[in-house]
Design a protein that fits this description.
73% of the residues lie in helices and 3% in strands. By secondary structure, the protein is mainly alpha-helical. The protein has one domain. Helix 1 packs across helix 5, helix 1 packs across helix 8 and helix 2 runs antiparallel to helix 5. The chain is flat, with a radius of gyration of 20 Å. InterPro entries: DoxX (IPR032808), DoxX-like_oxidoreductase (IPR051907). It is a multi-pass membrane protein. It comes from Sinisalibacter aestuarii.
């Protein structure tokens, strides 16, 4: 009886976990990413604000005297890609469209964001925090570990049964029959 119950929980858990991860992301982190992306928009979709460069290239912008003309095309491309990634990747994750790829993209994005915070913005020890301490709310190590766990779950499990990925897969299977 217990084995049958555990088996049913495993089956339902495998179906529910990706949806719960996507809803958790939508409820807690999507707004964070979109608000951050909005701060990077300038006069148009391909004209980033000064703040975008300050967030992504803090040291280089300071060394250039906050004169954007001193930065190159590469800096512009990175800022544009980062800005649009902050819009697109969360949207894809919420829809469950290319879920694994979007989650993997967010892992890379947050890794670069973390390195920028640590190296470019000189995060202090209280912001960085420490694992295995009694304080679970540091902005970098603690919070981003939770973010990574959410993203890794979606990389491993995909979008789940209630996702655009599954809908597309069902249509492709039907069209092959």
């Amino acid at each position: 009886m217990i084995a049958a119950l555990l088996s049913r929980l495993n089956i339902r858990g495998d179906a529910a976990l990706p949806l719960l991860a996507r809803v958790t992301f939508a409820a807690t982190l999507a707004g964070y990413f979109w608000a951050s992306a909005m701060t990077k928009l300038g006069d148009g979709p391909f004209s980033p604000a000064l703040g975008a460069y300050a967030q992504i290239f803090p040291r280089q912008l300071e060394a250039a005297g906050y004169d954007l003309s001193q930065l190159g095309v590469w800096h512009w491309m990175v800022v544009i890609a980062g800005t649009w990634a902050e819009f697109a990747l969360p949207a894809l994750l919420i829809l469950g469209l290319a879920t694994r790829l979007a989650a993997l993209g967010l892992i890379g994005f947050v890794t670069l964001q973390t390195l920028t915070d640590l190296i470019g913005h000189h995060a202090d020890a209280s912001t960085i925090g420490a694992w295995f301490d009694r304080v679970p709310d540091s902005l970098i190590l603690d919070q981003r570990l939770f973010w990574f766990m959410l993203f890794v779950t979606l990389v491993l499990k995909g979008g789940g049964p209630l996702s655009a990925d599954r809908l597309i897969a069902r249509r492709l299977i039907r069209s092959e029959m």
